[in-house]
Structure formats: structure tokens, C-alpha cells
């Protein structure tokens, strides 16, 4: 039998060389034939190390005197490549090749010859972001071309959740006696705008509740006329809502435009059939494309709850409340907690299951698993203001009993705790440092430890002003809205119970202010799940180099239990067209691990690769009742691609 040696290997039996030397010029044709096709039964087709080094192998027999390591032919004893040997004396270094071997005898492998992608594919290119690269994450100034919401940087430059990145450094104070709301810059303490809150004349709108969404926009509840109005935070950048070609809006306390003429007043919805408006709570959720979906829950005194579309004001839900409504507060699990004043009831609606009128059409019960829950408050306590702290505990000012009450849904049988502070309190708020603040009217502001309610005190210098409402601003300062003196008191807390600095007569031009809901939006951020996103565009191949083929997304980071990353991509012919392109989900990490194929995901979605790619990473803390917010950390993100026709 005979066989032909594969291309690139030479016959190694000594009989062939002897035969050719002895025949000389006598048999050139035979020599030519033998040189091109060996017809000797049992010939060895093994190559030499020079011809096989770096090639794929299964056994060392295929490596021409070398060894097969990690499925590659290499020199025995650490030798370098063809013509080189790192084990000889002296070593004979050779040019470095891409073969997982130390060819130039410097102790490193493949340095300087790997592609941008870190492999031997010379057609592969890579571009990335993160600390230590030429393009660090920049979710603040966006010098990297990024777009982001709710994320920031830790000291190392890693991307982390930071809901404060959407700054809402304003407080919205309802002027009940004027039918307006004041927008006050909490840093300068100046009133930057004042808006009418409804279509009624003068003070007939009677606003008394305000709630702020995560974008900074305000919802105002009017007792007069029983309506809700949405006002944009954007000021001079508000849309031209009346279509006259000019953006007109208030510029200060004395610049109040007639109803219908201020472009920052976005809509007004009438909800007339549930009693006067007594409760509001803004709620923001994430849509399938990572967008913020805004809504507001509205409570009528006579026991009706509505959910309004935040964009249009349209009614999404109308349902019976488990109690009458005096105040609302949302927690991180989507529970809407209700202060049932004069009913001595704490109500709860699970907004993740109450999504439309039909799904909400259930009777309340006493169990935690109910969509609607009715929780009796121990005798003698009547709830007024309400809030939720970062540990998901519900707090109420119990007007008439000189107490502040805490309800802990995770505490088992003993869920209620009461502190007799000796003062009838109205509004109540929780800060991020573990303190509860309550408005004690002429007795001043009460400061109380959230973990130990027996530790409390009245804040010196805050009494005698008719403290009605309490709010925490973007920077952690406490605002007392004073019905009696028609102004505000500002408290800058220190770390201990009696450590604070008090400033009175702030915003002195208020008109009969009567408000004690979430006027700054900080309760929404404090108690609900943190989430955010970071979007980074990447440019592929120049058209002259051929078609761009997006290959892999690579990422590094930490996702502690209860947190995750979600990665999506979209591709377009131009950068300007990226926002119109369809998102393609790559997956959630965990369980997704790096790298992940962009090419396969686009193919499965039926989308062809284009020269521009946008990668979005969503950061989420998926807690249900945890008492601590732990953020995921993204330390690096890159994409690989190739150019040409593939």
C-alpha cells in the first residue's frame, strides 16, 4: 500500500535521501516524482519542529520532535520558535509569534503580536470604556458621548448606581391661599418660579399636596375643583405647550402667568367623584427599553384611588381604597401605603398587581399577600402624615395622641412601635442618615431616631412658627413649611440628636402654605429601588474598509446578591439614527458572563450589523424588603468587531 504525505510535511525516512543521492542525474524524472509524491509503503509524514511549531495538535507525535501543549506544537524544554531556543546555552531568541509561547525568551508570551482583541485574530478590533482606559466612564459631563440616568462613579472610576445624578434640587411648596405652587431652589433658597395649579380663580384651587417624580417634575393636588396638575421642572427649557412658537414661563415669585399661558404647566386632570384630593404619590417604573414610565397615584378623601399616566394625565386605574385617604407613600416593593385618617387604619395597595381597574377590583383583607390590605392601628392613634424610610418601615404622625408610630412589615407579630413625643405632629419625613423628622406646629420640629424611637427631641429654634409640613432636600437638609409664619425653616443636621444648625424666615413670600407630602422627591428615591442606565455609542469600520461585523461585548464588574446588570445593543448606519433603532437584549448578569456574542444576538433578531453600535448597561438593585442598598459596580466594558465582508 502507499500514501501521500499532506502538504507542508516532508518524508523523513532516510531511504529517500539515500536514493536521490545515489541516482544523481540519472533519474531526474524519478527524483521529481518522488519529491512530489512519496509512494513508499509506511512512510512517516511527521514534520519538523520548524514546520509544525505553533500549529494545532492533538499529540506530541504531530510536532516534529517538539511537544503538544495546550493543543499547540511547542519546543521541548521551553525552546523558542524556528531557529531559536530559550533553553540552549546561550539562549537563541526568535521573533515573537502569536502562539501562546515565549519566542523571544523574555519571560512573556505573545507580547506585541496579539490583536486588539487579545487573541491571534489579526482581523479583530476592539474599543472600550472604563477607568484606566483612554475613555473613562463619564456619566456627569458625558465627554465620552454617553447618555445616562441614575448612575455615577465610585472613587475608583467604576460605574455605580447613584439616583442623585438626576438632580432635583428644588422644593415645591403649595400656596393654598393663592392657588399657586412655589418652585424654590434648595441651594440658593430663592424662589425661581410660581405657577397657578388649576383653572379656578384666585385661591379657589386650594392646593395642598405635591409629589415629585424622579425627573424632578411636580404633581399638585387641588382640593378645590378636585384636580391634579403636572408642572415641568425644566423652566426655560419647557416645551411650547400652547404652540405659539415661544416658551413662556414664570421667572419668580411675582411672575405668575394666567392659567393656560405658562408652558411649564403640562396638564390638568379632573377627578371629581371621590372627594377632595388628600393624597399624592409619584411613581416611576422602567419600561422594556429602559425608559422611565411616569405615573402618579391620587387619593380622594371619600375612599377612591386613581392612577394617572404621568405623560398625559389619563386615568389608568380607578379603584376603591382600603381606607379613606389622607396621605400616600411608596416603598421599594411597589406598595402604596395609605394614611387612613379618622379611620384609624393603615392601608396598602400592591401596585405591581393593581395595574388596571379590573385587576384592582378586589376587596381588602388583613393578610400581607392581599392586593389590598387593611391594617388596624392600635386604639387611640389617628394617622396624619406618612412616609417610608430606607429600611421599608412605614412612619405616621399620629395627630391627637402626641405620638409618632412606626409599622415594620418585616417584624413578624410585633410590628407596631409608638413614641410619645408630647407633641401633635402633622407632616413627617425620613432622611438617609437614619433620622425621622416631624412637624410639631408651634412646638417646632421633632427629631427622632429611626432605629430607636425612644431617642427624640424638639429642635431648638424651630418653635412658634406653625410647622405644618416636612421635607428632605437633595443635599440632606430639612425643610419645615410653616403655616403660621408663611415661610420655611431650614435645618442642617449634624450627626447627633442635638447637633444641627437652624435658619428661619427662609422663602418669606409664601401665601398660607399648607403642604406636608413629598415636596422634593427624596422620599421616592430613599424608599424605592435604585436603578439607572449608561449608554455608550461605538463607531465601527470606515466604509472603505468594508462592512462592520460586531462580534462580542466584554465586561468586568461586581454584581452582589440582589443586584444585576442588563445589557442591550442597537445598531444603525449613522450615529444620529441610533435612537430610532431597535434594542436587542443580550441578557442579564448574573447569570450572563463575559464575553457575550453581539453577532449572534443581532442575527437572532434578524438585524444586520451597521457601522454604529450603542451599548446600554442597566444597573439595578432588585430588593424586596432589604434594609440596605447595595450597588453593582461596572469596571470595564468593550466591544470587538471586524471589517470587511464576512
Describe this entry's structure for a reader:
The chain has 646 residues and is mainly β. Among the domains are: 14-78, no CATH class; 124-163 and 530-643, Jelly Rolls (Sandwich); 193-270, no CATH class; 273-379, Beta Barrel (Lipocalin), CATH 2.40.128. Helix content is 6%, strand content 36%. The strands form 10 sheets. Strands 3, 5, 6, 35, 38 and 40 form a 6-stranded antiparallel β-sheet that branches. A 5-stranded antiparallel β-sheet has the order 4-34-39-36-37. A 4-stranded antiparallel β-sheet has the order 10-11-12-13, with no helix packed on it. The longest helix has 10 residues, at 14-23.
Unreliable stretches, pLDDT < 50, 5 or more residues? 1-46, 623-628
End-to-end separation in angstroms reads 43 Å
Query: What characteristic shape results from the CA principal axes?
Result: elongated
Mean pLDDT: 84
* Percent in strands: 35-45%
Q: Helical proportion?
A: under 10%
Write the topology of this structure.
Layout: H1 14-23, H2 28-36, H3 49-52, E1 67-69, E2 72-74, E3 124-129, E4 147-149, E5 151-153, E6 159-161, E7 170-175, E8 180-185, E9 191-196, E10 207-212, E11 218-222, E12 227-231, E13 265-270, E14 277-286, E15 292-300, E16 304-309, E17 315-320, E18 327-330, E19 335-340, E20 345-350, E21 372-376, E22 383-388, E23 394-398, E24 403-407, E25 416-420, E26 428-430, E27 435-439, E28 445-449, E29 456-458, E30 467-472, E31 478-482, E32 487-493, E33 500-506, H4 522-527, E34 531-539, E35 548-558, E36 563-572, E37 584-589, E38 596-597, H5 598-604, E39 612-621, E40 633-643
Antiparallel strand pairs: 1-2, 3-40, 4-34, 5-6, 6-40, 7-8, 8-9, 10-11, 11-12, 12-13, 14-15, 15-16, 16-17, 18-19, 19-20, 20-21, 22-23, 23-24, 24-25, 26-27, 27-28, 28-29, 30-31, 31-32, 32-33, 34-39, 35-38, 35-40, 36-37, 36-39
